[in-house]
Specification:
Elements lengths: L2 H5 L1 E5 L5 E6 H5 L6 E9 L5 E6 L10 E3 L1 E3 L7 H13 L1 E2 L2 E12 L6 E12 L11 E7 L1 H10 L6 H13 L13 E2 L1
Parallel strand pairs: 3-9
Antiparallel strand pairs: 1-2, 3-6, 4-5, 4-10, 7-11, 8-9
Helix pairs in contact: 4-5
Length: about 190
């Protein structure tokens, strides 16, 4: 992890997502992990395909695994949706309307890095029909995939996907946006 990134202050929360205070990103992920606010963004195109990314090999934890379009943490003093839009632009080079769908709490340890995610994770849906411009420091590969094909591959190859993605992919596919239906009036933009 880039030392500056590890020093970034994220938001520790209680089991009701009430802020407890700031903590450095690295310290929040050490040991068994401290519960902190996070988000996971699922992007669909007009045909209903899901945008997936394989985390870059240089990521500080869960490197090289397939996951949803974008994940991240709001910084101390930053709003949740504001942070989601910031990270989507930083990782995939575009922005689009987002709608919060649900939230969940999980804990997952990465044996390779020794770090732990303990997150109060807010799940957002968005729609994008353009060509992404991925940041290679964040994203090693990407693809559009039919949701049912994703679920089938998850059953066959669960170790190829991030823990948080394995937890919610079924719910996202079941409850996700309908094919061809806009989430918000087309407010997509590419950087």
């Amino acid at each position: 992890m880039d030392p500056a990134e590890g020093a970034e202050e994220i938001i520790l929360v209680d089991e009701n997502d009430e802020p407890l205070g700031p903590e450095s990103k690295l310290r929040a992920h050490e040991g068994r992990g401290r519960l902190h606010r996070a988000f996971s963004i699922f992007i669909f195109d007009r045909e209903g395909r899901m945008l997936l990314q394989r985390r870059a090999a240089g990521k500080y934890h869960f490197a090289g695994l397939w996951t949803n379009a974008c994940c991240g943490h709001p910084r101390w003093g930053e709003g949740l949706e504001e942070a989601a839009h910031r990270r989507l632009k930083e990782e995939f080079g575009f922005d689009t309307g987002l709608e919060e769908a649900f939230s969940f709490v999980y804990r997952a340890s990465d044996e390779e890095s020794g770090l732990t995610e303990h997150e109060f994770d807010h799940v957002f849906y968005g729609r994008f029909d353009g060509e992404p411009d991925p940041n290679p420091e964040e994203i090693g590969a990407w693809r559009w995939e039919e949701p049912q094909a994703v679920l089938e591959d998850l059953k066959k190859n669960p170790a190829s996907y991030t823990p948080w993605f394995r937890i919610v992919a079924g719910r996202v596919v079941e409850e996700g946006p309908a094919v061809g239906q806009p989430l918000r009036d087309g407010d997509a933009s590419v950087r």
